[in-house]
Amino acid sequence: MYYIQPHYHGISRTTEDYERMAQAGVVAVAEPAFWAGFDRMYPQTFIDYFRQISEFEPTRAAQYGIRHFCWVAVNPKEAENVSLSRQVIAAMPEFFEKPTVLGVGEIGFNKNTANEAIIFREQVELAIKHRQLILIHTPHLRDKLKGTKLTLDILREMRADPARVWIDHVEEHTIKPVLDGGYWAGMTLYPMTKMSPKRAADILEVYGKERLLVNSSADWGPSSPFTLQECALEYRRRGHSEQELIEIFHNNPARFLGQCAKFDVKPFRLMEPQMNTDKHGWR
To answer: In terms of pLDDT, which residue wins out, 10 or 59?
Structure first.
């Protein structure tokens, strides 16, 4: 069984995690830009961070045969500082030329403020202008529904192509409008604040596999890169085939991320075993 880990914060994890993920079948990871645990004060701090995830992290992953890709963005937690955010946004296009950068993300809302909306719009506009994929963060539970509605309203207003937008951290009360809008929906298996593997398996059975992504968002908080494997096991226990698991945990991220030509990990299908027989029908 092969996996693509589409949302993983390797900068906050040990090298041992890459080794164990490789042993567990992970062939590629994508690392969105995120909060450092504190608000950064200078645009150069963001730029050095973008260099680290686009230049250094791929070398750590490559030691274990894992392809590493990333995104660049001003994350929602730090978007409240409009002046600083605009300086960072001005520097982002140079990273679009890097061989492992897939697009703009993760962007969106944290507390659903006016400043967050300003910076969200400006980053969506940048992504559209440069034909970049978009990865969107939706807020934690108490602000999630409002933040999701704000996100969808702005995307419609800006005429973003839904096929090139992934809205992450959906839950039972937000997934339907995301899918109905034609966007890709991501379920994050994060033990404290987001979704469990069993809840994700329930949603997969209700909504099917189309345009659904599953990720761990493993970072420096209480989290694990192996919640993907836990969800796959739960889904397999319910009687779903190996090919169905491959479609969800490998092929769907390959399809979305593969809209960027840099992501060259392709979807695949299992081959049916064929028996060799002689003219008498003997093997």
So the answer is: 59
